[in-house]
Amino acid sequence: MLERPDSKAIDRKSRIAMPSTVIxxxxxxxxxxxxxxxYLPFDEESAKAAAGRCMQCxxxxxxxxxxxxxxxxxxxxxxxxxxxxxxARIFRMTSTLPEICGRVCPQVLLCEGACPHVKKGNTxxxxxxxxxxxxxxxxxxxxxxxxxxxxxxxxxxxxxxGPAGLTVAELLSKKGxxxxxxxxxxxxxxxxxxxxxxxxxDHGLIDEKTEYLEQLGVGFxxxxxxxxxxxxxxxxxxxxxxxxxxVGAGVGADxxxxxxxxxxxxxxxxxxxxxxxKERDRPSHLNEPAKVGSRVVVIGxxxxxxxxxxxxxxxxxxxxxCVYRRTEAEMPGNVRDRQMAKEEGVAFRWLTQPLRFVGxxxxxxxxxxxxxxxxxxxxxSGRRRPIxxxxxxxTMPVETVILALGYWPDPLMGKTxxxxxxxxxxxxxxxxxxxxxxxxxxxxxGGDIVLGPALVVRAVAHxxxxxxxxxxxxxxxxxxxx
Length: 482
Fold this sequence. Notes:
The protein is α/β, with parallel strands linked by helices.
């Protein structure tokens, strides 16, 4: 493995002048007819050239901006020198899911946003695409080592097979602990499978990850909702010594307007599952594939809204519009996804609030009554509050409406687990930020059930800290007798 380059020996002036990297994508006219990943993989020479723009700056701002603190400069140095497998191993030192984070992280807000090239008005080094490239390279050329320490005899239950839960399962299994993952859905992945479309991330990556964890000895129990039967208490009664809660925040926000129950009005998550998830992996009540009419409206402004509009285009809708009650400047989602939606023909209607949905005699939505908005003073989110403009009501014809209005935690876990402290409609309170320990002894938590809807990489970071905290708890190295 290469040593880190001497920072003083790097010619930064020449590197800052290097042309920006072109990230190849499927042409919009082609990709709207398939669900394959939009971004095309690097070839080896392009990857080396892209990584060669890294200035190896001593401030290492990209490392600090990464929630798992990947050693990005060192990984890029390896890529620049053609050491792709070594670069992948650098990413894997701090991330359990580099092949996925490289695809779905909003790098422009994290590592790439901190790149010095941005300050010079250039495009940043494409860290995410390079991370995905080398991670794929390592898995295909060498595979991942199936190595674990001798069995300790300790048993851990992981509730939720999303990014946080899978991270905990991998790290604890490698330490020799027996890990069983309980998942409410028919397959693993959590939001990665049931919330992220395949045109952003091939779901086969999750299948590969699950197979790897099974080789490590991790057990999976599907279609089991912990909190109902069995409860967390039942898991302890079954002999598990620690429980990690990584159930996410997957309850769709309510939208209380007349007509919301009409046929043709979807919640975002069921719509995405029916459109992007293989039938074998869908819950039985979502077996039927989603169908859209020619006119589709998606209400919302975040990443899920962009996933829904782009999915609708691929399902054959001719007229797809995103309706948002603020302006584009206030939209919280990834700007790159929004740009790709525009490339794919999606229209945007800003400063618009739906008032009610109108149905026909068969009970199917045919129109949406709206009102125009204007922005007032900032609200608690820091964004300017949308205010209705009196007398500006209008009607839009629609055939399908998709509600992508955000998510809440499921309060079930807090209601059914004695001594487990929660707040804000069900988010789990963490007592020790370094370990993810909750108010209930032996119970740890992380990911969206703690943060609210957040990023995959932040869930991975939570999983890493919880895995270490659980290991210390099991072995008594936290200072407490177990």
